[in-house]
Design brief:
This protein is α/β, with parallel strands linked by helices. It has twelve helices and 16 strands.
């Protein structure tokens, strides 16, 4: 997308700067092959960037100095030139700043106003009006191609990483995977010696990215450092066909310990988010599809307090066809299909993908009426508990009292009065994990897989 040539006002004196900036930001539409964008060219691009910056800055300074040297001139030409520059400087809204220069008029700007888009270029900041204009322009283009935006978390969503020093004795075999066919880990396990870590890609991730790219313009968004994010992007997308420069890391966040769509050049009404952590998306929960965490390494299990063997210690892994990514891909395909439903017409601009997410989610436990028994703390307002809210978001009806229309009793104790009633009336008696699993997999899970310990009934 263009930050300058698309602008309503475009100063001809900053053509060189505009061309350079557009070249920086319009990489997705260029004809340059991935090989030409390899790391070996990065330093050369940086050198050219410095030269161009100095040339444009010198050009602007010379223009302004020329005006200041003739402040008292009464010639028509000088007066016209002074007036033209004054009008340009007064009327330019300075939509953004690149290396201290306005991206439209080239004027030197002091301070750091606007939102930094460091992942596009380390010296780029954009104002709110320009961000809104770019989002609007880009959305129209995406909708013409029947695409939306997809923001993807890295750790525990697309992959799992561990430090080499955190590997357990039972995981030492991973360091000796000299034969890539051993253990079925071919193409999915990476020893990153420079970072002193091992990274395991989640099963089905390559197919997932390939299929998702047909429906979405994709971003990576991680709370990890930028060096780590770029290294993971290379593993996931070595040809740079899925993400290009759209790799957002911790340094790009505008709020501490929070992720936000303010640094994503996509309209919120067209953005879906895949992440394993809900708490980091406080302002965008309606855009979020919560993922089941991928715990391949033992250190990951320990990090989240699980006292069990990891997948790597068990020498096992998620299923490719039935795993989390395969499941969520079907959800994304359904949401995408509903958003672009031809029966609703061909004007997509007024639609909101968040409404489609709610519609799909509400079908998961539709027709279920749930009563909870000893799941919430005493005197806790049941309606405020996350399981109650989750069940309602999944389309279930929640109640506090039993009646014949109740279909499920959710409890951790088979000996409670409500639990005994469920068994007597041949209703479903399930563990709270049944709701959480249904939420992760976006479909009602078999109740028999979530039994209650019957010993408490003795």
């Amino acid at each position: 997308m263009s930050l300058v040539t698309d602008s309503p006002v475009h100063s001809s004196s900053s053509d060189g700067f505009a061309a350079y900036l557009d070249a920086e930001l319009d990489s997705d539409s260029s004809d340059v092959s991935p090989e030409q964008e390899a790391e070996d060219d990065e330093q050369e691009a940086e050198d050219e960037s410095d030269s161009e910056y100095k040339r444009v800055k010198r050009q602007k300074v010379e223009e302004f100095e020329s005006i200041e040297e003739h402040p008292g001139s009464t010639s028509d030409g000088s007066l016209e030139q002074n007036l033209e520059v004054t009008i340009t400087k007064d009327t330019c809204t300075h939509p953004g700043v690149f290396r201290e220069l306005c991206i439209r008029c080239g004027q030197k700007m002091e301070g750091g106003s606007g939102v930094a888009f460091g992942y596009i270029h380390k010296d780029l900041r954009l104002g709110s009006d320009e961000i809104a204009r770019l989002r609007d322009t880009d959305l129209k283009n995406l909708l013409r191609h029947k695409k939306l935006y997809l923001v993807l978390d890295l750790d525990h969503t697309l992959l799992n990483s561990t430090r080499l020093l955190d590997i357990t004795p039972e995981e030492l075999y991973l360091k000796n995977q000299t034969d890539p066919l051993q253990g079925g880990l071919k193409g999915n396990l990476f020893m990153l010696n420079t970072m002193h870590m091992l990274t395991k890609l989640r099963p089905y991730v390559h197919t997932f990215l390939k299929e998702a790219s047909k429906m979405f313009e994709m971003y990576i968004y991680t709370m990890g450092e930028r060096s780590y994010a770029l290294e993971m992007a290379k593993l996931l997308d070595p040809e740079r066909v899925y993400f290009s420069s759209r790799v957002i890391s911790q340094a790009d966040c505008t709020q501490r310990h929070q992720k936000g769509l303010d640094v994503v050049l996509g309209q919120e009404s067209a953005v879906l988010i895949l992440d394993d952590t809900e708490s980091v998306w406080q302002k965008h929960k309606d855009n979020l599809i919560l993922m089941e965490r991928y715990h391949f390494f033992a250190s990951s299990c320990r990090q989240f307090g699980f006292n069990c063997k990891s997948l790597s210690e068990l020498k096992s892994d998620e299923s490719e066809p039935d795993g989390a990514l395969a499941t969520v891909l079907k959800v994304l395909q359904r949401i995408h299909s509903m958003f672009f439903d031809p029966e609703l017409g061909d004007d997509f601009s007024g639609r909101d993908v968040r409404q489609e997410v709610k519609r799909v989610r509400k079908e998961v436990l539709k027709g279920c009426k749930i009563v909870f028994s000893r799941v919430f703390p005493t005197r806790f307002q049941a309606e405020n508990h996350h399981l109650w809210r989750m069940a309602e978001q999944l389309g279930a009806t929640c109640a506090t009292e039993l009646d014949p229309s109740v279909t499920h009793v959710v409890s951790t104790d088979a000996g409670t009065e409500k639990s005994r009633w469920a068994l007597q009336e041949k209703k479903f008696l399930v563990h709270p994990g049944w709701i959480e699993a249904s939420n992760y997999f976006w479909q009602k899970q078999p109740e028999e897989n979530f039994p209650i310990n019957q010993k408490k009934n003795q």
